[in-house]
Every structure is written in structure tokens, then in C-alpha cells.
Write a structure and sequence with these properties.
The complex is a heterodimer of chains A (275) and B (313). With 275 residues, chain A is mostly helical. Chain A contains 15 helices and no strands. The longest helix of chain B has 53 residues. The chains are: A mainly alpha (275), B mainly alpha (313).
Amino acid sequence: MKKKSIQKLVAHICLIIASILFITPFIWMVSTSLKPITQVFTFPPEWIPRPFQWSNYLDAMQYIPFFTYLNNTVIITVFSTLGVVLSCPLIAYSFSKLNWTGRNALFFITIAVMMIPGQVTMIPLFLLFNKLGWVGTPLPLIIPAFFGVPFYIFLLRQFFLGLPDSLMDAARIDGAGEFRIYWQIMLPLAKPAVLAVGLFQFMGSWTDFIGPLLYLTDEASYTLSLGLQQFQSQKGSEWGLMMAVSTMMTLPVIILFFFLQKTFINGITFTGIKG
Amino acid sequence: MSQQETISVQKSVSAKKMIRRKKRKSNIYGFLFASPWIIGLLLFYAFPLLASIYFSFTTYSILQPGEFIGLDNYKQLMNDDIFWKSVYNTIYFAILFVPLSIIMGVSLAMMLNMKIKGMAIYRTIYFLPTLVPHVALAVLWMWLLNPGFGLVNGFLDTIGIQGPAWLGSETWSKPSLILMSLWGIGQAVVIYLAGLADIPQDYYDAADVDGANWFKKTFHITLPLLTPVIFFNLIMGVIGAFQQFTLPYALTQGSGKPANSLTFYVMYLYDNGFKFFKMGYASAMAWILFVVIMILTSIIFITSKRWVHYQGK
């Protein structure tokens, strides 16, 4: 018994040291974001801003068209998430709960497609969107989501497979249409998985860099990721302002995490164990 | 033929008809529900995949139609110094980062799994960095690793070590990238934790009865039963490492400086395709990447039969 408590003590010490290492960059980010420029460049570094320069946040919002970028990011994020949530469960349901000729072959192809690195399709896709006149608009970052994403389809299919058929059969006997069975009975049952997939897409879209870099050529259509990168390359030494932008960009995700902690953790766990 | 038999034959005919009608109905609906994906698959996956093979054999660029040149792009790549530099950088990163992330992730998860107080808080702390958008992460670490005024060198200075130039140094730029990538292993920790929770307590109880020590329990129970999850993270880690783009791009504004020490494979691919408009050349690079990833994944899959243990098998 005593040996066990020593073990736990050692574990606690290691975990606390690791925690300090993991949390310090955050504190440093927030601390720098509130420092006046003169205090940013002190060595050795100081932790507490003197005075707290809240105006860094206002300045940062003026240096870059922050609200334009925020607005662009929100539009892309919301619509691509909507697309994924509408299309993927429907497709996954068809792959798991409906019997049709060619279903298994198509599902096999879907799995195979997951293995293709994005870089392989990147160039022809760019040319396709260019032909459609979509380059420079957020459409290439939104529209494909409405046609399904293989990884999400796979995850949702695994989830649907775990749901019983009896409810569907009962509804059929009662004369419910196929779409109604999906929309009113099966989809609500799959809510945790749909929420997790929506969250993955939201995160991916919010933080995406290469997509906006390829397609958003006009500065007025930039997202936060792109805006921050550009800001960094132009005003590389304004650390206070850059940390302010970084903080504002990270904060919504962290707030979302605290509200949906269970969905985050379960979603990732499900990916790792079933995937 | 008796009347009863006639009725039963009629019944079975109509039953067959009904089954056929049911089958047709479910065929229609199944296909209908999957139709967005069938369109998406053709438009956003199948067509680009085939087009990309073709482009890799041409001098295609967005500015001109290009001509068929056979394997010339591939041959040219073999003599491209920056190509090899990017291969070296990518492999360097993968070889160090993937094993380190597994060792760190498993160790943290094992400590968290000791039914320790405050587990939820620790887990949250380790998970938080994974929520930071990659560009913000890059900017934050550029500042942390700033040679003159950064926190890391400030700390090293207080214990009497003069810190290196980190991202400004050819030797230290890749280790810097590994360091900041390790900061984001929280997601893997969560998966390992779930894997550990799946190991039945009975095994440990039995080992206790036999008088096994911590070391034996770890290497004969915990780690072998965690191998399916390690296997998953290994594959995802390798694939992710070979596709590294956003961090090095944001850290160097796409230049891969200093001295191309942060030019990663996909960055060079992007440069070729979208800066130099050598889209055929870039497509050839994409296909080499695809084939290499396929080979590595297959190797991991084939060897997994030797080292991955599933419970109850």
C-alpha cells in the first residue's frame, strides 16, 4: 500500500511538471498580449504586464481588418459545418441501414479514398474551381462539404451500425416514409456522433490554413489564419499585437471546448478505438 | 392439386413479388440517400485523382496547356537538390517526432490512468494546446523561441545556459519544430487513455497475486494490450508527419529558411504548383508522396501482425 502511494506521488510530480510546461505558453501568450511594446523587449522576460495595456487588442483590430476576417472565417466555418452535418449522416445511414446493390463496393471505395493524401487531388481541384470561377471566393471551402467527407461518413456509419433495426421496422409497418424514418427517428438517435463530426469540421475549418491560402486570393476575403500569417510577415516584431490576435483566435475554440468537453473527448476516443 | 396447395403457391408468388418490390424500393432509397456522395466522389476525388496522374506526365501549368513528356518530371525530380533537401527534412522530422510523440503520449496517459486525483484537470491541460489554430501556434512559438527576448532562452539564461538561435539556426530549426509539435500531443493522450481504460483490472489483480512488480506489469500487460491504439497513432502520426505544411510555412512565410532547413516536402510541392506554376512537376511530387505513404502504411500493417495484440485473440 505504501509503495502505491509513493508511486502516485512520483506520478503527481511528473504530471505537475508536464502541466507547467503545457500551460506556460498560454500564459506567456496572454501576458505578452497585454504588454506595452517597451516591456515586450526586456531580458530576462517579465511575466506581469506593467501597466496592463488593453489597447493592444483594439490596436490589433485596426492593424488588420479583424472583423472582416472574423466574418469570413465564421461564414466558411458555419456553412461547411452545416454541409457536413446535412450530407454525411444521410450517406452513412444509407451505407449502414439500407440494403442496396453496390453498397458494399461503394463503401470499400470510400475507405480507399480516405488513404489519398490531399496533395494528390489539390492541383486538379484548383483547376476545376478555377474553371468554375470560384477561385477568390469561399465556395471551394464550403460546397464540397455538402457532398460528403469520407472520414466522417466512415465514423457515422460505425455509429449507425450500433443502432438497432427494430425501430426502423416498426416505423415501416406504421407506414412512415423512408426519409421520415431517417430524419425523425434515426438521425436524432445518432446525435452524439453527428455533434462530434460537426465539431471536427468546425475545428478543421476554423483553423484551416492551406485551403484559404489556395483559394482566397483577395485580401478582403481572408480568414483569421491567413490574416494572422500576413500580419506576421509584415509586422514581425509587433509581438504584443500578434499575441492579441492569436489569443482572440484561440479563445472561441477554448470556450467551445469547455461547453462541449464530453463531445470532444468522446469523439476523439471513438475515432481512435473504432477507427 | 388441392385447393390449399394452389393458395400456398399463389401466396409464395405474391410474397416473392413483394420481396422484389421491397428490394427495388430499398435500392432506390439507398442510392438516393448516397447520391450526394456519389457525385462528390466522382467530382472531388475520382476526377482529380485521374487528372493528377495525367498531369504528372506533362508540363501542364495554369498559364499554358503543356505537353506530354512521359517520365521527364520524375527524372528531373531525381536531380533536384531542393527536392532531396525537402525529403531529408521530412524524414528527419518523422523519424524523431513520431517515436517521441508515442513515448511521451503513452507515458502521460499511463500516469493519468493511475486513478489519480485531478485527472480531469490534467487531461484538460494537456488537451488545450491541440485547440490552438496552427498559424497562431506558429506565431506563439516564434515568440517563445525568440533568440533575444523569448521565454525559452530567458529560462535557459537563468540556469546559466546560453540558448541557441532556435528557428534562426540551421541546426536547431527542425528540433524547434519537433518541440512545438510535441506540445500538441493531447489528442493522442486522450486516445491512449481510452485504450488503457479498456484493459480489464483482472489482469493486474492476477499479476499482483503472482507478485509481479510495476515493471513487469507495464511490459507484459499494459503495453502489449495498448498496441492496437499505438498502432492507430503510429499510422496517423506517420501520415501527418509526411504531410507537414502549415507550421513550417507559417514559421518561415513559406520560404523554408534558414538555408531550406524548414522546406518540407509538401511546402516544396506547393511552391512548384502555385508559385512557379509547374503543376505537372508538382503532380509528380504528389504521386511520389502518395506511393511512399502507401508503402509505409503497408509495412506498418504487415509488421503489425507481429507486434499488435488484440484482446481475446
